[in-house]
Amino acid sequence: MGSASLIVALKLWNDIQEEYAISRTTTEGYRAYLLALSGFQAGLSAIQTIPEEFLFQTGLALNPPDIEVGEDCKPKCYIRYSIQPEDGKLNLNYLVRKIDDKPDETYRNIFLRLFTIFKIPLDNVDTLIDWIDQNENQEGNGAEKNYYESLIPPLKIKNYYLFSLPEVLFIKGFTPDMIYYSRAPEGWEERQKELAFLTEEEKNLITKDDWILANHITAYVPSDADSMKININAARYHVLMSLSDSMTQRAVLEIFKLRNQEGGYIKDLRMLENLPSLQVQTPSGVTLYEELVGKGGSFTGMLKTEGEIYRITGIGTIIPSNGNMNQAVIRKVWALYDKRLRKILFYQED
Known about the structure:
By secondary structure, the protein is of the alpha/beta class. The chain is built from 11 helices and 9 strands.
């Protein structure tokens, strides 16, 4: 009887422990969610009230610090928020013109250049166009309704704009490693460490994060007033390299140097006019500067200085008293916000 009682007691104890753990996780999860929501609201308030130039120059737009909540939140609670300009990335939805449902050849060529850099099959540009456009005309080696219906299980083609980047994984030819994992050439990081003769600016021209495609592309439904231009103050190296066949590494370096000299924020595109590498003549008979700012050329007027679309993220973290980060409870709230229209385009809680 004693043994049986012990076994029953141990089982009840284990059950209670499991219920306690579940209850604690649920409770802490809700607290972490409230912290994340507070961070999100702080970020939203900042983008609505603080001048954009100040956000860049102080680092709040790109790399804000964690904020530890006061003693009322135990054991340890942190709030983090970020305000990241999303239009420094290439919007996949720009591949299809809103006005006539036809492929946008400017952006097709931009994405062909980008996918070449990341060693992604170029046919994937066609599958993106077919997924987004509202017709059943297959682009090149793309995929339309009949392909997706033949899958097991079958899948319904969207024939509309992507609402968020993860939707890309439903599209023929795309895999998670293409989007979310490093595509750096083999041995790239080791070679970087050996280049001791480079300046710090040259070393930081391309970082590890620059080899992750998700840091260069985005997906949100463009408005009728969307300029489709790239925010030069937020664009990464590979985005700028994709804008023109005439773009060079030296030209991007000069743009980044100018951006750094201006405290992280270029106020006017005319500041680019005297950069030596932007004086090169393009096949269209204009300088690279003229092509980029909109004074001629096949791919013209692709840059802007003011952000319109921002990703606002709030993250709440509760760390247990033992300090074990593996047991930390983390929640995230994020949205895409159109600053010009003062409107949330997409909202998600994780």
